[in-house]
Amino acid sequence: MLIQDLRYGIRMLVKSSGFTAAAVLTLALGIGANTIIFSVAWRPMRYRESDRLLMVWETRPEGSRSTVSAPTYLDWRDQNTSFAQLAAARSASVALSGNPPILVSAASITPNFFDTFLLQPELGRFFLATEFHPGGDRVTILSREIWQTHFGGEPGIVGKTIRLNGETYIVVGVAPADFEFFGRMDVWMPLALPSGEINRQTRDLLVVGRMKPGVTADKVRDEMRTLAARVAQESPETNKRWSALAQSFNEALAGPGVYLELLLLFTTVTVVLLLACANVANLLLARSSTRGKEIAVRIALGATRWRVTRQLLVETFLLALTGGALGLLLAFGAVRYLATLPVLQAPGLAPIEINRAVLEFVAALCLAATLLSGLMPAWQTTAANLTEHVKAASRTATGDRRQGRLRNGLVAVELALSLVLLVAAGLSVRGFIRLAQVNPGFASKGLLTAHLSLPAPQYADAGRVRAFYSELLQGVRTIPGVEGAAISTGLPPMSFELGQPFRVEGRDPASPAASGVASYQVISAGYFRTLGLPILKGRGFNEDDRQGSTPVVIINHRLAGKFFPATDPIGKRLLISQLVPGRTGPSGPVALEIVGVVNDVKNFRLNEASNPEIYISYLQAPWTSEYLLVRSRSETEPLVTSLRSAVSAVDPDLPLTSVSTMDDRLSSSLAGGRVVVVLMVIFSFMALLMGSVGLYGVISYSVTQRTAEFALRLALGAPHREIFRLVAKGTLRLLLIGGAFGMALALGVARLLGSMIFGVSPYDPVTFATVVLVLLAVVFTANYLPARRATKVDPMVALRYE
Questions:
Q1: Residues 778, 780: Cα–Cα separation, whole Å
Q2: Which of 184, 401, 732, 802 is the most exposed, fewest CB within 10 Å of its CB?
Q3: For the chain, how many structural domains are there in total?
Q4: Residue (of 422, 438, 455) closest to 654 by Cα position
Q5: How far apart are CA 223 and CA 246, in angstroms?
Q6: Helix boundaries (H) for 56-137
Q7: Which domain holds residue 152?
Q8: CA dihedral over 358, 360, 361, 367, signed as positive or negative
Q9: pTM score, whole prediction
Q10: 147 lies in the same domain as 269
Q11: What are 376-385's pLDDT values in tens digits?
């Protein structure tokens, strides 16, 4: 019987080709939109038992997360009872010798790191416990990608030597394919953490743990907060008010706000699918009027209501299945494009693709669409009065009136949901435009940036580091077209933050205004001028701020306003433990005299307030990893070759990496939000299109049903505008009902979106007014064509058969 239903359903759908095409295309759009978002969001992690992996962070007094200091990690590792493994990694960039040398990403890891992820090497072995002691053999593990691309996939790579940062390392293994940890790591090295290390201010470890069986994430969070409080009590100078955060590994990789954005997109495409189903339901209800006699005869001949309902549902399933196949085809093209966008790539996640899970999701959508689209029309059709359907005047039957009310209700709901999505898309667009217009605090146009990482052996001496950067900056400033050049340890937008605890000299340590945590950068003289960052008070650094002179610091306006609200900070001193974390320096805190106050910079995210920030001269605190910042009077691209030549003139083996303009850096920071906004707009207008098509269908069907009435009115002398008014009256009623319901929903949704929208009120009058005008224009267009057709009715032709 099922095969019989399928055959009959196919014949009926082929017979009604126009109806079938409209229904299939509508469902294809709804299912395709959901498939696209599902393919992006529902990607499995590449790690085994990833639900038991947690990232553990230190959290600053203001609540933001931070990487972990080595002593704190060791305390957590030794004292926790919730983790089967608690591992740590420290990332860096190293120079891989070759012709030419290249800069590769590296991670130094604790002995249990690979065990935490339940990994096995692709070649060779992982590190031995003896290789983690200071002074042991220098060994390394290669990533599969660097093994393939740089070493040609050589099978005998294990046991061979390579040079990293000018030192010889023995390759002992190759990591498994596709393993990533907060980005691609090219080489892995042992991390030796002396148990006696007490520097808790150098927070540079990424800590990941695998929970024991039976342990919940909530229990881990409670225990880590307890351990952090114990550390803060034992080390108040460096850990006062610092706590700990245990975060699911997937959430940590995704970053802040991503889940809310995905939820917003999923909600949007779900509404699109509901609108598609409502449209198809409307088409089925309209079609049922032409099949009323057929259904009535079937029931009169003994068919049960369920038997006829099943036949109609089989036909709807064929529509949904065909629409799902077409939607999958549309999604396939979109997914192939989205898979190329860097902003949608995430370490540890499977690539964006149409896989088995996506196919199963599409199958589930087809079943859902069948029930949502077909169940109610099928039930209404089989409930019709048999006698009324057999009569010639069946179009005025009670069933038709009931179905008419149902169709009108569906269209009102479609208009309401379309209005809600348009409001959400409008607010997202307005917020994104405001975000893109935010002043980052500096002049980005004409700035070229690049990254340099000096290999440790050759530049272990601080004097050698100072000499390199001084010679490099002199050479860069002589390049034609260069207006200024400087270096800094970070450039906006930064992906991580260096947090430096400090204390204001002379204040009671127990006072909240005595100490805090600031982001900090190590820069050269001329940095503020090159960046276009105004100095508000005092001065910038100069060549006299060097080793042996008075340690000085420059603070930003945010720090000055918070810790020196009523006094001039110039001349005051900040106490910090080390000028350069990790480098041996003076014992005890160092007093740095404040010599300047500069404007605030949006160093991390444009939608967040600037953090308190301090700047230190590289001559007093040399770093081996710095960004090169160059301001040009002309185009920046021709400078790249000159910059590489300037670096080679100082050190021929040093690669220049991450070359880009500052405008490109800022644009990349907005890429994720840009993708979300574009998809929101596309799906919202798709919903509007479906709503308008549904409205047009209902009005058109109503005009067809009332053809005789309009013809009689025209024959009796009614003007055309009266016919237009009668059609518009029904449309206006639907608009008022749907608009009122939609506006109430939109106000509630806007309130929920308030935290995701930057710089725009959730009840922004411009957005709501624009959406209302767009909706009115669409409704007018959907109403005009059927109404115009109604005024063109020939009374003689229309009344001939009455």
A1: 5
A2: 802
A3: 4
A4: 455
A5: 10
A6: 70-79, 113-116
A7: 61-241
A8: positive
A9: 0.81
A10: no
A11: 888 777 765 5
